[in-house]
Inverse folding.
């Protein structure tokens, strides 16, 4: 059985392959295609996430959460979610303003 590779506006959807259908959807809604290809943000969960992100102790992670990276942290009750990229960016900005803060590893 030969697949029909050509389709037009009168072609029934059930005759399209998944790839043809996705191409059709992308051509009709290019803004959704751009959103689908955007990189996903990286989040860390809890104080342990901040500890592993910055390689610091629990008290230091708590201080960071409440001060320097406050804008990257979302807390609802006991649940803490941190936008990792934004936290690193805020930390680097703080680091430039205050030279006494230790450097973060370049592997991040």
């Amino acid at each position: 059985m030969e697949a029909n590779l050509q389709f037009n506006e009168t072609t029934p959807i059930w005759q399209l392959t998944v790839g043809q259908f996705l191409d059709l959807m992308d051509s009709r809604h290019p803004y959704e295609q751009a959103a689908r290809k955007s990189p996903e943000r990286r989040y860390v969960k809890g104080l342990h996430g901040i500890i592993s992100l910055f390689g610091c102790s629990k008290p230091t992670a708590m201080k960071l959460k409440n001060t320097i990276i406050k804008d990257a942290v979302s807390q609802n009750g006991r649940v803490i979610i941190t936008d990792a990229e934004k936290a690193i960016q805020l930390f680097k900005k703080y680091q430039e303003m205050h030279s006494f803060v230790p450097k973060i590893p370049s592997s991040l």
